[in-house]
Amino acid sequence: KVFRFLKFKVYSDAKLFYRRIVIITRKFPREYWELGDQMRRSSLSVILNIAEGAGKDSDKEFNRYLNNSLGSINETAAGIDVSFDARLILETQRNSLLEEAKDIANQLGGFSKKLKSS
Predict the structure, then answer these.
(1) Residue 2 — very low, low, confident or very high, per pLDDT cuts 50/70/90?
(2) Mind listing the pLDDT tens digit for each residue in 10-54?
(3) What angle, 0 to 180 degrees and rounded to 10, lies between the N-to-C axes of helices 9-25 and 33-54?
(4) What is the largest CA-CA distance in the chain?
(5) Which of 32, 98, 100, 106 could form a disulfide with 28 if both were Cys (CB 3.0 to 4.6 A apart)?
(6) CB–CB of 74/105 below 8 Å?
């Protein structure tokens, strides 16, 4: 059970998503540093909650952390949308990032359902 999160596809996908967010937000103008910082923190939170939850003793506890991850991916998606409205990212970037976020959200939801049924 030690570090079992390293084998989860959603964990790997969330890490790739985080790296993309870091690269994109690095280019934000100084006046938008709060938005970039929040997007980096919320996307990192997805990863860290998966890892922390995976170390818990019960599936019920783990599920709570997956729900936190789901909240964080939604927060990041909102940041992506705000970034687009502020013309910080292109529509193609927005669409691609939101598609990745949706995939991660779906994986988290499926994982959560699986834990509830076991």
Answers:
(1) confident
(2) 999 999 999 999 999 999 999 999 999 999 999 999 999 999 999
(3) 170
(4) 48
(5) 32
(6) yes
Token pair belonging to 30: 């100084």
> What's the CA gap between 26 and 37, in Å, rounded?
9
State pLDDT tens for residues 72-117. Answer: 999 999 999 999 999 999 999 999 999 999 999 999 999 999 988 8
Residue type, 69: S
Residue written as token pair 């860290």? 48
- DSSP sequence for 61-112: HHHHHHHHHHHHHHHHHHHHHHHHHTTSS-HHHHHHHHHHHHHHHHHHHHHH
Phi, psi values for residue 30, rounded to 5°: -55, -35
